[in-house]
Amino acid sequence: MRTEFQDWPVRTGFFLYGALSHLLMFRLYVEWSFGPGANREVADHALTNMAVTLLGGAFVLLLMPGPLLRAVRKPSPRIAVILKAAGLGALVTFIVVQALFVLGSLFWTLKVCATGLPGVGAVSLWDQFLVWLLDVETYGADMVFWSVPFAACSGVLCAACIVWLKKRLQAA
Fold first, then answer.
1. How far apart are CA 113 and CA 116, in angstroms?
2. Distances (CA, A) of 93 to 16, 21, 28, 56
3. DSSP readout, 28-93?
4. Whole-angstrom Cα distance, residue 107 to residue 129?
């Protein structure tokens, strides 16, 4: 039996929605939070933007279709669907940001170890990773805080698109 969850256009749509919405949120955050003359080298790097895009698409594809499609399918109050979608949007974005922080910390740990600086070998790789993660989490905390309202709106927009498509396909 074929369901919407197994349909590749739906899965592709979720991936593209997640990828584009997270890239847009990240670029807006970079534009708003970096002042003139700020060093945007890491934020503007292609690898950073690709990671945000791929992580956003992957986590939306993994976490949102099942709960959202079930919420839209069964008769439930619209406010319940809206709140569920907002919560899922915020959760997915939080996970994407945390995955980005872990990958960034791993990148910096490996980069510092590869330079062969004096004293680098005195600390274990794990300890260096934890120090970088603490650094990234500290300076990235405002990104987590400011992304929550946008992420919640993104989840609601995703649910609205599903409801609109469902009504449109039923009418056809």
1. 6
2. 15, 10, 14, 7
3. HHHHHHS-TT---HHHH-HHHHHHHHHHHHHHHHHHSHHHHHHHHHS---HHHHHHHHHHHHHHHH
4. 9
pTM of the predicted protein model:
0.83
The structure tokens listed for 155 are 């989840």
Cβ-count burial 138-170 (b if 16+ within 10 Å, e if not):
eeeeebeeebbebbbbbbbebbeebbeeeeeee
- 132, 110 Cβ separation under 8 angstroms: no
Print pLDDT tens along the chain (172 aa).
445 545 777 788 889 999 999 999 999 988 888 878 888 888 889 999 999 999 999 999 998 888 887 877 777 777 888 888 889 999 999 999 999 999 999 988 888 877 766 666 667 788 889 988 999 999 888 888 888 888 888 888 888 887 777 777 677 6
Q: How far apart are the first and last CA of the chain?
A: 21
Cβ pair 113, 125 in contact under 8 A: yes
The residue written with tokens 């319940």 in the block is: 80
